[in-house]
Amino acid sequence: MKKVIYLVLMLMVVLTLSACRDTEENKVDIKTVASFDEVILTEENNVISVTFIEDGNAESAYQTFKNEMEGIDTTKVIALSTTIGGMLYEMGIIPLGVTSSSNLHKDLIARRCDVVSINEDGSVNYGSSCMVPNESRVAIVGGGFSNNANNEHIIALNPSVVVCSDAMPEWATDYQVLKAAGIKVIRVPQSMYYDPFIMLRVFEEINPDLHKQIQEILKEMKNDIDYATNLKETSSIKNAQVALLQSISGDGSVSSTTSNGFGSPMNIVITKLGLTNIYEESSTLNVEDLLMKNPDYIIAYAMANDGGVTLANLMNELNDTEGIYRTLTSQIVPIDFESSVTFNLTRVLVEIADEIYGS
Questions:
Q1: Bridge partners, 298 (sequence order)
Q2: pLDDT tens for residues 95-112?
Q3: At 314, phi and psi to the nearest 5?
Q4: Measured between alpha carbons, how far is 308 from 303 in angstroms, rounded to an integer?
Q5: How far, in Å, CA of 75 to CA of 114, rounded?
Q6: Where are the domains of the chain?
Q7: Which of 6, 49, 188, 318 has CA 20 to 30 A from 200's CA?
Q8: What is the per-residue pLDDT across 75-93, written as a single tens digit (0 to 9) for each?
Q9: Helices (H), the chain
Q10: Are 301 and 336 within 8 A, CB to CB?
Q11: Averaged pLDDT for residues 10-16
C-alpha cells in the first residue's frame, strides 16, 4: 500500500471549519485565487520573497487582506477557524482563543482551557482542570463550528482582531455585539485557506518577529514546488486522467467525487501537475460511471481526524478483489486528512508527483 500522507488540505475542511459570520459591510472582498498559478517565489541571499503576477486575483486578495490586517497586534488574535488557528500557530503565533473543535492543531488542543467565569476587572478564570501555564493558555471561545461562539468571553479576552471564515451564513447579531465592543472582525474567504502564500506574506510584513519561522515554511514549500514541477516536466506521462474520491468519517464508504471547481485545493494540485479531473463538479459517487471511465489514477482521501481509520476503510473498499470496484485498473493514490499539520499543500504536490511521475 502506498504511503499515506498526513496533511491539512486548506479548502477541504469545510465540514470541520469553525465559521464566523457578520454583516456584508465587514466582509473582506477577496476573490477566489489560485496562487500556485499566480505566485512568484524568488530566492536571494537565502531569503524567499513572495510576489504575485500583476493584475491577478492573488495580488488583489493580498492587498485587501494586508489592508485589513495593518496595525493588528498579532499576539492578540482569536481564531474562529480550525485552519486559521493552525496556520497562525505554525507561523509562531499562539492565539488568545480558539474553538472546541477536535480538528484543531494538536499543539493548540493541548493548550486549550475552558473559561468558567469573568472577574469584575474583565479578566477570565479558567477551569480547575487547566494545567497549562498562564502565558501558554488558549481560551475556548466557541463550539466546533462557532455557532455558539461566546461573545462575553471573546470581549473579556480583549483581542486585537477576531479572524474567521465566511463559509457559513451571516452572523449579524454576534458581529454587532463585537463591533459595539470595539473588536475588529475579519471574515476570511475559504479560498484563502488554499492560498498560504497570501497569509504568509501578509503576516511576515506586519510582524517582522515572524520572519524566521515563515522563511522556514516558504523554503520548504518552494523546494516542494520546484521538485514536483521538475518531475512533471521531465516525465513522458502527459494529460493523465484522474478521479478525486473522498470518504467522510462515519459514512463508512466512498461518499462523493470532489469538486473540480476553480480554487478547490486538490484541483489546484492536480492542475499544477498537468492532470485532468474526469469530474467537473462535486457529486455523489456514481459507481457505474466511475467503472466505465476507469481513469488512469484515483486520488482517494478521507475527511477525518481518526489516525487513518477512515482512509484504511476506503482503501480496503477500493482494493477489494471481490468488491464493486474490482474491475478498475486505476492506480490508487491515498491521502489522509490530519488536522495537526498545515501549510502542507505543497507536500501533497510532491507525493502525488512521486506516485504519478516518479516511476
A1: 243, 332
A2: 999 988 877 888 899 999
A3: -60, -45
A4: 10
A5: 20
A6: 10-217, 235-357
A7: 6
A8: 999 998 888 888 899 999 9
A9: 35-38, 57-69, 82-91, 106-111, 151-157, 172-180, 196-206, 211-234, 265-272, 287-293, 309-319, 345-357
A10: yes
A11: 31
Distance CA 162, CA 174 (A): 12
Residue 132: CB partners within 8 Å, gap ≥ 6?
Answer: 110, 111, 113, 138
Other beta carbons less than 10 A from residue 306's beta carbon: 16
3: left (phi over 0), alpha (psi -120 to 50) or beta: beta
Q: Which residue has the higher pLDDT, 343 or 210?
A: 210
Please name which of 240, 242, 334 lies closest in space to residue 290, comparing C-alpha atoms: 242
Identical topology for domains 10-217 and 235-357: yes
138-142/97-99 β-pairing: parallel
**Nearest CA to 87 among 343, 346, 345?**
343
For cell 496562487, the residue is: 35
The whole-angstrom separation of Cα 132 and Cα 111 is 6
CATH class of the domain defined by 10-217: alpha beta
pLDDT of residue 10: 31
C-alpha torsion angle, residues 278, 305, 141, 177 (rounded to 10): 10
Handedness of CA 118, 119, 125, 127 (dihedral sign): negative
Measured distance CA(330)–CA(290) in Å, rounded = 10
- Cell 502565558 locates to 135
Predicted model pTM = 0.81
* pLDDT score of 252: 53
* CATH for 235-357 (2.60.120.1060, 1.20.210.10, 3.40.50.80, 3.40.50.1980): 3.40.50.1980
The answer for residues whose C-beta is within 8 angstroms of residue 316's C-beta and 6 or more apart is none
What's the confidence (pLDDT) of residue 139? 94
